[in-house]
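Our preliminary data section would be incomplete without showing what the modeling component actually yields. Below, a chain of 295 amino acids is followed by its predicted structure, encoded as tokens that our downstream tools consume directly.
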Amino acid sequence: MNIGIIGLGSTGLLLSAFLRKQGHTITCYVRREEQKESLNKNGIYLLPYQHTSYIKAEDISNIQEHDLYIICVKQPQLFAVLDQLEKALSPHIPILFLQNGMSHIDRAQTLINPIFIGVLDHGAKRVNDYTVEHTGKGIIRIGSIKDEYFQLLENMVDCLSSDAFPIYVEKDWEQILRHKLIVNAVINPLTAILNVRNGEIVSNVHIHRLAYAICQEACDVLDMDPVLMWRKVLDVVERTSKNMSSMLQDIRLQKETEIDSITGYLLSKAKTGMPNTEFVYHAIKAKELGGVEDD
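Predicted structure:
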């Protein structure tokens, strides 16, 4: 397939590298001229496999026609990208969203294109503008917002999936987003506030207690089984124990986080108090406002 990938952070770099390895034509759309030049010169260097995938990089203002667009930008940049895409794309071209949180769903549903919503469970760490480290193997699960495009989704997944980079079709896309949202709402803010890696959520009894309380509050809002979801949280923590959450990475780099699309979304849907969730939301907003010093 001829694929346009928008946003070359850790997720975009990882996707681009693996899909190019499978033989797909990849064009990466970025905002910074420095990253564009670096990608065109160096390709994407994938660790720990020491593999280079050569792709084409373009400025995001120069969007061209592709068979599929995969949007990997984080929530704070997403709506500006969508405004730009709407002006540039033909209505028949499918768009795949791979974001944390759920605040983008309402906006995505206004698009007339076939819209697919995905959840990526791989661990990835961006090393520099053209290097990404694959820190944890996982899967991608994708659903279609509209049933009429389900066959198109199945055909696309058949084309993109491989043993090394498996992709699965999910019928209930809202369910997989809720699962991912709760996991992110527990792990991301706590690790970012306390400046710890994911494994501390299990090994530190006090963080463990906070994590459990936030999980319970999130499940109440989304009407999810708290026992099942706590198991999922613990499973992710175990598999990614040595990883640094994306929110912690953003805080260390003094970047805007996705707290509004994750924790903020939960607070916007809450009908009762969420004291633990509200605390971590404001703690992250305070860190964004004041910056943070690295160890």
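The chain has twelve helices and twelve strands. The two ends are 44 Å apart (CA to CA). Preliminary results of this kind motivate Aim 1 of the renewal.
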